[in-house]
């Protein structure tokens, strides 16, 4: 059977889900003059609030339309520090080692189908962070108590080949639009600790999807070791 892949580069910017808000915990790690990298920034839902606080923010994404939306939005909101936006693959970041103080991944890892790519992305984030720098991430958790998600996890497993991954279909064509992965606590913790970080903060949360479903979530802050 054809291997499932995600095509986030080709999805219309307005159709990219963006329902999770920045957790206030991030501001316990920011400081005057810090440089922040927003990985998988989409239309700037994290980059712009951080820039409005006066931080130097760079956002990267593979979707050019989302980046255009982010640029337009940042201009219209008159950020005191205008964010920089660039098209890039998170597995090969175009930045030098030790360039940033904080990296942000907001509902981004859920879009990465391959376990190997998730590890590459965390390693790259670690590489571009300064010593003792921090990685903030928030993402979806497996929600087995929900009948909707329990059935999707089980029914989609023969295609996704990974427990906790679900398939979203295009409402018009009926074809696969993208695959999303929901994590366990163990997955996220080991993803960080095996790729250069120690967990400093971990919180269980609840998020609401764009379709209104309530789903488990995690907010995590890792420190570069």
SSE blueprint and pairings:
Layout: E1 35-39, H1 47-52, E2 56-61, H2 64-76, E3 84-87, E4 100-106, H3 115-128, E5 129-140, H4 147-160, E6 165-169, E7 176-181, H5 185-193, E8 197-208, E9 214-224
Could you name the CATH class? Alpha Beta
Provide the spatial order of strands within the biggest beta sheet. 3-2-1-4-5-9-8
- Poorly predicted segments: none
Instruction: Classify the helix fraction into a percent range.
Output: 10-25%
Total number of beta strands? 9
| Percent of residues in β-strands | 25-35%
CATH superfamily: Vaccinia Virus protein VP39
> How do the helices and strands follow one another from N- to C-terminus?
EHEHEEHEHEEHEE
Task: Describe the protein in words.
With 225 residues, this protein is of the alpha/beta class. It has a single domain (8-140, 185-224), classed as Vaccinia Virus protein VP39 (Rossmann fold, 3-Layer(aba) Sandwich). It is built from five helices and nine strands. Strands 3-2-1-4-5-9-8 form a seven-stranded mixed sheet, with helices on both faces. A two-stranded antiparallel ribbon has the order 6-7. The model has no long low-confidence stretch (mean pLDDT 92).
